[in-house]
Amino acid sequence: MRTLLRKSPAVAAAVLLGLAAACGGEVDEESDGEPTGDAVAETRRAALEVLDGWTDIHPEGTGTVELAADDDGTTVTLSVSGLAPETEYPAHVHDGACDADPPGGRHWLADPDAEGGGEPNHIHTYVVTDGEGAGEMTLDSDLVADDRAVSVVVHASGSNEQLQQAGADRVLCGDLAAG
Ligand SMILES: [Cu+2]
Fold first, then answer.
1. Which of 18, 36, 53, 172 is the most buried (most CB within 10 A)?
2. What is the pTM of this model?
């Protein structure tokens, strides 16, 4: 008679990863808060705020983003309002804080050492606003956003008058925090 109690390698690996994440959390007290590339179990959120240059153009610009990462990937839920109507805005997970220069730093890369091209290496999406300048989207990425993922940046799309007026293509930024 066959036993149904054998452990699958996938389950064993998931258990090991879970333990590794838990251990990483416990030794965090000794770190100075610098990103380590460790997985983060909790959901992180950010309030998106209008960046310099865009405060006059989109004074009501605001939004929220939620990043839920587990061993299988990351779900990004993005909501914006107060932007231009019926416009597509690219949004990315970034590796710097919103008070960095430029705001949000660079793209978060799943493999920071990878050469360009090939497999997708960063979490990029876009949100399309409705007639009122509001929009929502949800993205499921296979990439696991670790603690090097620091912020989410919403960019202006294409080249237009507003873009030139603002002098920068970064419209909104939010620093990710647990909770
Ligand atoms: Cu970006």
1. 172
2. 0.78
Cα of 24 vs centre of ligand 1, distance in Å, is: 28
How close is the Cα of 42 to the center of ligand 1, in Å?
A: 23
Residue 135 Cα to ligand 1 midpoint, Å, equals 18
In whole angstroms, what is the distance from residue 153 CA to residue 13 CA? 33
Compute the distance from residue 45 Cα to the ligand 1 centre, in Å.
17
Cis-peptide, bond into residue 102, ω within 30° of zero: yes
Q: Which option is the CATH number for 44-178: 3.30.70.240, 2.60.40.200, 3.40.50.2300, 3.10.450.700?
A: 2.60.40.200
Q: Where are the domains of the chain?
A: 44-178
First to last CA, the chain: 49
